[in-house]
Amino acid sequence: MNLELARTKTTVSQYNRVKDLGVRLMWIIYLQAQDFRQQATRMRRKMWLPNKKMKLIVLGMVAALILIIVLSICGGFRCWGN
What is the reported pLDDT for 6? Predict the structure, then answer.
């Protein structure tokens, strides 16, 4: 009976250690995920202006290309005048 009780206590002790390790691992993962989210937010805010500038540059180039095509078809600014 004492041997069975000792085995049970050992099993419970090992279970508690594994459970504590699992809780610590869960906290480590949670903290790393939180840090990753914060870094991603900072990066997104940092890259907002360069992304907007790039979009504006591309939009300007497309508008200029369309204007050049329209003007070359019409023969200059005479399309809208006479």
Answer: 82
Residue 32, token pair as written in the block: 């790393």
- Confirm if 71 and 77 have CB atoms less than 8 A apart: yes
- The pLDDT of 22-44, averaged and rounded, is 93
DSSP strand E in 10-52: where? none
Q: Is 69 within 8 Å of 76 (Cβ atoms)?
A: no
Q: Answer whether residue 32 shows pLDDT above 60.
A: yes
**Separation between Cα atoms, residue 41 and residue 26, nearest integer Å:** 23
Q: What is the largest CA-CA distance in the chain?
A: 111
d(CA 24, CA 31): 11
